[in-house]
Design a protein that fits this description.
about 110 residues, 2 domains, 4-stranded antiparallel β-sheet, 7 strands, about 25% strand
């Protein structure tokens, strides 16, 4: 009988150890707290936090090679614009845009 009581006591102590603050991993923020955290991270990295419609929030950055001539996606920090054959001023681009792939093919890329 005594061994059973010791076992139950040890089991209870182990269960309570899981309730100690800091013992469990911290869960990521959700809802408005997650949006606030994303907005803060974006600003700290030099981006502009933007909303596209009512459901898409994203961080947009200015590129260092805006306007530079390009023939494929890898020529640019962001996208290579198909029509002008120049590097886009922002990344990512909002809406639908014709851009060049790494093979130099024109495709329509959409962020909506």
């Amino acid at each position: 009988m005594r061994q059973g009581a010791v076992f139950i006591t040890v089991l209870a102590l182990l269960a309570l150890a899981g309730c100690i603050p800091g013992a469990a991993p911290t869960l990521p923020p959700v809802g408005s707290a997650a949006v606030d955290a994303a907005r803060s991270t974006c600003a700290a990295q030099g981006g502009n936090f933007r909303a596209l419609g009512q459901s898409l929030l994203f961080c947009q950055y200015q590129t260092d090679d805006a306007g530079k001539t390009c023939t494929r996606a890898s020529d640019c920090e962001g996208a290579c614009l198909a029509r002008s054959r120049s590097c886009a001023p922002l990344k990512p681009l909002a809406g639908c845009n014709e851009v060049l792939t790494d093979r130099g093919q024109t495709v329509t890329e959409c962020l909506q």
